Amino acid sequence: QVQLVESGGGLVQAGGSLRLSCAASGRTFSIFAMAWFRQAPGKEREFVGSINWSGESTLYADSVKGRFTISRDNAKNMVYLQMDSLKPEETAVYYCAARRLNYVSGRYQEYNYWGQGTQVTVSS
């Protein structure tokens, strides 16, 4: 099994920045592409960004392009999400996800492992 633990969430003012981290443990050799999703109260889970194992391929939701950056450090089994110019409507629980295939994807059904999430609150 693979365990994913997110950290770095918190309260930030609109226009501010946060950096989320996701630590992977367990059978990490079995995971390749990773991603971030978010879910606001009363809304469906939404794709944010995905990265393949080497980091050479990334995919972002249109709403975050140019403001969010996903990266990873395989030696540390870590994935990061740098979020800049945050907006109040981006208040949500942010989840880290991993899949056993090395293709970036925005479909949550294609991810095999999930973290518990970290709350991000953007105040106006």
Features:
124 residues; mainly beta; 49% strand; globular
Architecture overview:
The protein is built from no helices and 11 strands. The protein is an all-beta fold. Strands 2, 4, 5, 6, 9, 10 and 11 form a 7-stranded mixed beta sheet that branches. A 4-stranded antiparallel beta sheet has the order 1-3-8-7, with no helix packed on it. β5 and β6 form a beta hairpin. The termini are far apart. The mean pLDDT is 96.
Describe the main β-sheet briefly.
Answer: 7 strands, mixed
Helix content: under 10%
Report Rg: 13 Å
Helices and strands, in order, run as: EEEEEEEEEEE
What structural class do helix, strand and pairing data support? mainly beta
Approximate shape: globular
Number of helices: 0
Q: What do the pLDDT scores average to?
A: 96
Could you tell me how far the N terminus lies from the C terminus, measured between alpha carbons in angstroms?
40 Å
Low-confidence stretches: none
How many β-strand stretches?
Answer: 11
Roughly what fraction of the amino acids lie in strands? over 45%
